Amino acid sequence: MPKKSRKYIPTNLMMDDLGQGISIDKISFRNSDFNTGELYELATESHRDSGYTFHFIQKGTVHIEIDFQKYIITSPTIVYMHPNQVHRILSFTDITVCALSMNKEKLNPDYLDFLEEISPSRPLLLNKPQHINIFTSFSLCLNFSKQKSNKLYQLLLKDSSNTLVALLISEFLNHNNAENTLPRFEIIAKNFKQHLEKNYVILKRPSTYAQLLNISTHYLNESIKSATGLSVSQQIQDRIILEAKRLLYHSDKSVKEIAYELGYEDYPYFSRLFTKITGMTALTFRQQKYE
Prior knowledge:
Arc Repressor Mutant, subunit A, three-stranded antiparallel beta sheet, single chain
């Protein structure tokens, strides 16, 4: 059944009554609570989050889709969501979730750089020591969030939340190997990815990214191929097509509108590019959500 018409991908705003730019909560859901059509639709609607968000699945199992990749997540697991990512719940058992979301103004700038670096991240299954450390830190933050009469409330909430974010980032970085142990081509690939995420709408030439990194186009291409198996051009095109898929599937913008939003005034060229990369037309891809 077709979903309601919309021009923009829905964004879930943080539950932030005092305007702190920080939302933290611990919630338990029973599957039986969502047995009505309206509640189920709200729970499973595709959306983005307004902040940088971590979900700590403490109990239960959840089946989610993040940017068209499906994951079956069992506790204890950390799920990190960048504000750009589109996700939805497909199904779940009875679960307990600890959630922390922060906007960029409240995040330590150094941590913000790391959050961009580790995105996108696969859900991270925790071992017992990691589980204990993260749950203890989360409980402390949650306790501070309830001390609204404390004169240092804002500082306690901000500093403790940033400390928790630092702990979570460190777990993802440790899982992916510390940067100083990476070979040169991996470091270049990480830096390229950061520039690509910020500029893919306006910068589409490999040579432009090489200039940003102060290396030759040939060296950039060799580094990206060594790290990913793909060329720089393919990486740029894949990032553009991911955003196109998000807009095609989760909004009702026309293909022409999407092409323009992604920096293509030549609408037929964008259509050909989409077909080349995905093997189907943009309209065929969009039609899949109704099948």
